């Protein structure tokens, strides 16, 4: 299962858990731009000045995002700017780039690359694939102010290998210098257990498969934390701001937990909260603060599948599960189908599918060729028109 899918699953699980005993009426989340304390959402909003002053005094501030939310990326830029005004010695750690891309980030910050050259050389469509337009203002901010950009991730082949054979059996040369993840706490294990129940390997070898799944998922947190800790060792008076998925940030169970294992303890965590969502669902300890953001004017197109690359050097994406009522279900896609072509192009991996779906205008049809029971069939995904 792709980590982006796991992140979304954990958010749904968090909201579901916090809905037990839900109030009779929806509680308003206040106005966009207001900061709330998750421990006291009914209290007056937090004053931005003292909050950001406190965050600027940390070693690390993690800004959790929904990858496809343009509003989240605008919030990240605004918050980053406010932190920079208070602490100019900043480095920005990006989940979006594996370590091998670091020389490209250095060239970009130094002004040696055009925007298109940067996107091409960083292999944006391959290593990340979400809309670059949402992230470019962050990249330009780093470049304008000559702030170090840190490639904080690893090649996806590493957690995939760990998920198949376990940490100990992966060659050290493939681990990119990342150390063994600290064992997660009980609450994070519960979240991972729920996610594992939707994983195709759950029936293969039971608890051994779950143990490998935990190692693979915590590896992402470990890699990001280690890259941040390495920078702080070299620049102890610096503030590192993390640009990463909210699943790595919530409740301090992900990157912040791994940072503590590197003795980095002054970590701030900030998230957004959609104004249209019920504030009663914000759980205590979710983050140091959440900022209310306006709901998106239109939801991004979604196919409605959880998927995994076929692997073994083969192209294609295998559907793990299909969301009820989704575009995928209405098109007749089923768990076990292998996506071979989308929009007339070969499906090389998960990113091919995501890019094709994100380009799909409302009210249009998307042809998809799949392999099912050794037969190739064609289906058409019909995306709803804008309301």
Fill in the CATH topology of the largest domain: Rossmann fold
**Highest-level CATH class of the largest domain:** Alpha Beta
Helical element count?
Answer: 13
How many beta-strand segments? 13
- Binned, the helix content reads 25-40%
Query: Which stretches are low in confidence, meaning pLDDT under 50 for 5 or more residues running?
Result: 1-26
Q: What would you say the CATH architecture of the largest domain is?
A: 3-Layer(aba) Sandwich
Structural class: alpha/beta
Overall, the morphology is globular
Average residue pLDDT? 89
Number of domains: 2
N-to-C SSE string, H for helix and E for strand:
HEHEHEHHHHEHHHEHEEEEHEEHEE
User: In angstroms, what is the radius of gyration?
Assistant: 21 Å
Biggest sheet, spatial arrangement of strands: 1-7-6-2-5-3-4
> How would you sum up the major sheet?
7 strands, mixed
Distance between the termini: 32 Å
Percentage of β-strand residues = 15-25%
The oligomerization state is single chain
Give an overview in words.
The chain has 13 helices and 13 strands. By secondary structure, it is of the alpha/beta class. It has a seven-stranded mixed β-sheet, sandwiched between helices. Strands 8, 9, 10, 11, 12 and 13 form a six-stranded antiparallel β-sheet that branches. Helix 1 packs across helix 9, helix 8 packs antiparallel against helix 10 and helix 10 packs across helix 11. The chain is globular, with a radius of gyration of 21 Å. The N terminus is likely disordered.
């Amino acid at each position: 299962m792709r980590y982006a899918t796991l992140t979304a699953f954990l958010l749904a699980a968090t909201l579901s858990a916090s809905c037990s005993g839900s109030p009779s009426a929806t509680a308003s989340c206040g106005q966009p731009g207001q900061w709330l304390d998750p421990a006291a959402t009914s209290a007056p909003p937090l004053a931005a000045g003292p909050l950001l002053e406190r965050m600027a005094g940390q070693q690390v501030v993690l800004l959790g995002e929904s990858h496809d939310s343009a509003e989240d990326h605008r919030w990240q830029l605004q918050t980053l700017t406010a932190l920079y005004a208070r602490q100019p010695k900043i480095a920005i750690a990006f989940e979006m780039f594996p370590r091998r891309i670091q020389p490209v980030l250095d060239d970009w910050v130094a002004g040696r690359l055009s925007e298109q050259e940067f996107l091409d050389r960083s292999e944006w469509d391959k290593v990340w694939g979400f809309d670059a337009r949402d992230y470019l203002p962050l990249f330009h901010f780093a470049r304008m102010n000559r702030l170090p950009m840190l490639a904080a991730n690893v090649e996806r082949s590493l957690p995939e290998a760990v998920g198949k054979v376990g940490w100990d059996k992966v060659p050290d040369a493939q681990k990119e210098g990342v150390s063994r993840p600290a064992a997660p706490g009980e609450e994070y294990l519960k979240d991972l257990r729920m996610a594992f129940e939707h994983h195709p390997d759950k029936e293969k070898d039971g608890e051994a498969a779950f143990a490998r799944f935990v190692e693979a998922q915590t590896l992402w947190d470990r890699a990001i934390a280690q890259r941040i800790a390495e920078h702080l060792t070299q620049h102890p008076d610096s503030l590192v701001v993390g640009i990463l998925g909210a699943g790595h940030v919530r409740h301090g169970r992900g990157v912040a937990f791994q940072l503590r294992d590197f003795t980095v303890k002054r970590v701030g965590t900030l998230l957004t909260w959609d104004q249209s969502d019920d504030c009663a669902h914000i759980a205590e300890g979710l983050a140091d603060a959440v900022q209310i953001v306006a709901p998106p004017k239109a939801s991004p197109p979604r196919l409605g599948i959880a998927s995994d690359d076929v692997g073994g050097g083969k192209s294609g994406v295998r559907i793990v599960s299909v969301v009820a009522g989704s575009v995928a279900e209405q098109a007749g896609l089923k768990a076990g189908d292998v996506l071979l072509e989308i929009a007339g192009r070969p499906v090389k991996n998960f990113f091919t599918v995501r890019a094709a779906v994100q380009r799909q205008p409302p009210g249009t049809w998307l042809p998809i060729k799949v392999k099912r029971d050794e037969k190739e069939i064609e289906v058409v995904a019909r995306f709803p028109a804008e309301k």
